[in-house]
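Appendix B. Chain record.
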Amino acid sequence: MTLEATPTFERNVVFISKGTPDDDQFVLWLAPRLEAQGYKVFADILSLQPGDRWRREITGTLQNKAIKMLLCCSDATLAKTGVQEEIGIAEDLVKQLKDPKFIIPLRLQSFKKFFGIGELQYVDFENRWAAGLADLLDALRKQNVLCGTPAINSNWENYRRRNEIKLENAPERLTSNWVRVAAIPDTIRYFYPTGSVNHGAMQQECRDFQFPAEPYLRGFFSFCTIGEVNQGFSSIGRFAVGAEIPVLDFCEHGAQDPFIQSREASNLVLSIARRSWENYCRQRGLLDYFYSQLPGFHITDKQIELGKKVPWGKQGERRSSMLRNKAQGKIWQFGVSALPNLWPFPHFRLKARVLFAEAEGDRMGEIFDDKKLQHRYRRRICKGWRNKQWHGRLMAFLELLSGDEATIRLPVASEQFIKLDATPMLFTSPVTTVLPNILDDADEEPDDDTFGLPPPDDEED
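C-alpha cells predicted for this chain:
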C-alpha cells in the first residue's frame, strides 16, 4: 500500500479578513493597490468562483497559502462570526509559522480591544487611506513579505462597476439645494455723514446695526430709510442720502456717485443678503457654529424637542424628518449654511450641516470644538443617511423657518425684505436611475443605530 504525500503549498498570499458588505468599498480600494506592488491578494469579495464551497475555500487559503493576514478592524467587523473564526485560525498560524506579526490589524474605525489582537500594533486607515497604505507597504517590506511582478486583476474594477447604479435615458425632475430669491427691494441707498464722524465708530455701528449696512468710502450702503439710519446711528452723527440706485442697475453697472464698479457693487449686495440671512437665523434662536468659510445655523431645543419629526411637503403629500436626535452617546443637530449668488439668477445655495455635542441625558451638553472630531462624527454617524434623508431634513428645516408662509422674509429694513422661496428649486436631469424615487415616511430613518437604538448583531455600530 502506498501512502499519499501530504500536499505542500507556497505561502505567497496576502489574505484580507473583512466583514461583508461593511468593508467591501475599502477592500475594493486596497486590493488592487497591493497587487500593483506585486503582492498576491485573496479577498472573498472577488477570489471565490461560482461553485466554490466558500467557507472551505477561505479556510484553506488562510491555513495553507497565507503569508500575512490583513484584518479589517472596526467593532462591527470584529463582531462577525466569520471574522472571529478567521482570527482563531490566524492565531494558530502565529505559533505554527513562528511569526508574531502574522496578523496585521488595519484600523478602519476606533474599536474596542479584541482578545488575541488587543496588543498588536495596527495600521491606521481611519482618517486617510493613502497614509495608511504607505504605512502598510512599509510594514510589509520590513517584514520581508516577498512580492512578485505587479499584476492587477481587472475583476476588481468589474465588480465595482457591477454594483454601480445604472442609468436610464429618461428625464427626471430633481430637487436642488438652491432657493430662489423671489423678491428684493427696488432701491439701495448710499448714506454719507453731514459732519465729521469717527470712521472706525461708523464701521462698528454698521456691524452692530439691526439691519445690514455695508461701509463704503466715507459712508455706507443700506436698504434702510433716512429716518431709520439717523435713529440707529444717532450716537455717531447725522447722515444724508447721497444716492438712490435701482438695485439691479447697481449690480449690473455699479454707480458713478459714489463711484463703484459693478463687481464690487455685486459683492456688496451679496454681503447684505448674507448678513440678512444670518441675522434672521439668530433672531429665530438657531445655534450658529462657524465652519471653514461660513457659519452654519442649527436647530436647537428652542425650535423642536429631541427625536421629534418635523412634517414637510405639499398638502396631501406630507412627510416628516428629524432635525435633532441622539446617536452613539452624542446629540446631533441639523443645520444649514447659506451662500447668496446672483448668477445665473439671484438665489441662495444651501449646504447641509450636522453639529455634534456631548449628551447630558437627553439634553445638549458642550459642543465639540475640535473640527477634526466633528468631521469624524459626521463620517461615522451620518454615513447611513441616504440622499432622500438629507433632502427630507433640508425640507423640514425650510418648513420650520417659513411656517405657513410661501416665502422666508429676511429683513433688510423695517418694511423691506429679501424674500426667499420656502421650497428648493426643481431641475430636470436628462437621465434617471433605475432606483425607486419614492421615500415613504416610514422609510425616512431606516438606520436605527443612527438614532441611538441598540444595533443588531449583524449591523455596523
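Further analysis of this model is presented in Appendix C.
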